[in-house]
Amino acid sequence: MTDVKNEQSIFKVAINLIGACLISGCIIGLVYYITAPIAAEKSEMMKQESMRGLVKDAETFKAVPNKENWFAAEQNGKTIAYVVPGHSKGYGGAITMLVAVTADGKVLDYSILTSNETPGLGDRAGQEPFKSQINGKNAAALTVVKDPSNKENVQAMTGATISSRAVTLAVKNAAEEVVQFTGGK
Amino acid sequence: MKELWKIFYKGLFDENPIFILALSLCPALAVTTNVVNALTMGLTVLFVISTNNVVVSLTRKLVNPKVRVPVYITSIATIVTVVQLVLQAYFPVLYKALGIYLALVVVFAIILARAEVFASKNKMIPSFFDGFGMGAGFTIAMLVIAVIRELFGNGTIMGYVIFGAGYNPALIMILPPGAFILIGYMIGGIRLYNQRKDAKRLKGSES
């Protein structure tokens, strides 16, 4: 008798769990079906917009052949800058960013796409005033220093030296890659 | 009606999830560095906890007590995933800012605790108000902490500069230890206030 009861109970338990998971799966599937295209559209839009924010004079962005995720910013049919992905390892893990570099290797602007830097410390690497220290420099000047009188290079942010270094390095690498690609012209 | 108000109200102060129950301290440290993130997190929890309480209350007779916790977690996880998908589609910036903490809402102690303590034993409407009150209390606590931390740690509120450029931000307020210290003092202050109130009441009833 107790066996039957036990079996029933296990059966009930299993039904319960199956039911819960089934319902949950259906709901998530339905919501995903609705939101997935919107999310993809939004992320594409954000990418375009963030590139436009980096190179303000650009009219169109064209993918560069043979280079993954490279975009050439064009104005009047002439390439004025390249938007390339940058990678680095920061204080809280991987940092991915977009860097806009002119053909002769000057950094126009950059933006951080994903990072896990400390809020309020390391994540200021994507904001002013740190940003304006990097913009306009070429790869050779992009090293982090801790000497306030040095205006040539990049000042580390107080309390976030690792993040400063990581972001600067990623920008530097991106700039060097572009120079290599264009031959510095 | 009065009963429902009472159920709602206790979550705000008398049983505030963070200051009194001291549950879900992890998000209270992690996402209160600025007001916008704290508000989004608070509202997310508010939504999840109310919805989950309703679901748990509606299914309380169907769910076998032996597996109630897995079923509750499945329910919470479903709701959180839905919130995640919606945020990702319509508010990608906020979604990015909250990052991993959004997924961690699933295991917030306060949500499971309310399902277990209240919703599994009560009808749907009181359960909803219980969740709503607890969520509101959580949101208020998050906001209070975030306002103080952002103001002193960064000199801004919701991104607007309050203290001028001459203000030298107190970095510790932005870092997790600052949040620990702040929450500690706040819990202490609230305990002290409640003690005084109780003592007064006791005195009043004696005389």
Topology readout:
The complex is a heterodimer of chains A (185) and B (207).
Chain A: H1 2-54, E1 60-63, E2 71-75, E3 78-90, E4 93-101, E5 107-114, H2 130-134, E6 144-145, E7 154-155, H3 161-182
Parallel strand pairs in A: 6-7
Antiparallel strand pairs in A: 1-2, 2-3, 3-4, 4-5
Chain B: H1 2-12, H2 25-30, H3 35-58, H4 68-90, H5 92-98, H6 100-104, H7 109-117, H8 124-154, E1 156-157, E2 160-161, H9 171-174, H10 176-206
Antiparallel strand pairs in B: 1-2
Helix pairs in contact in B: 1-8, 3-4, 3-7, 3-8, 4-5, 4-7
Oligomer: heterodimer
Uncertain regions spanning at least 5 consecutive residues of chain A: none
- Helical content class of chain A: 40-55%
Content of β-strand of chain A: 15-25%
Q: Sketch the major β-sheet of chain B.
A: 2 strands, antiparallel
Description of the molecule:
The complex is a heterodimer of chains A (185) and B (207). Chain A is an alpha+beta fold and 185 residues long. Chain A has helices at 2-54, 130-134, 161-182, and strands at 60-63, 71-75, 78-90, 93-101, 107-114, 144-145, 154-155. A five-stranded antiparallel β-sheet of chain A has the order 1-2-3-4-5. Chain A is elongated and about 80 Å long. The model of chain A has no long low-confidence stretch (mean pLDDT 79). Chain B is mainly alpha-helical. Chain B is 73% helix and 2% strand. Chain B has one domain.
Structure keywords:
heterodimer, A: 185 residues, alpha+beta, 2 domains, five-stranded antiparallel sheet, elongated, B: mainly alpha, 2 strands, flat
Compact overview of the structure:
The complex is a heterodimer of chains A (185) and B (207). Chain A has three helices and seven strands.
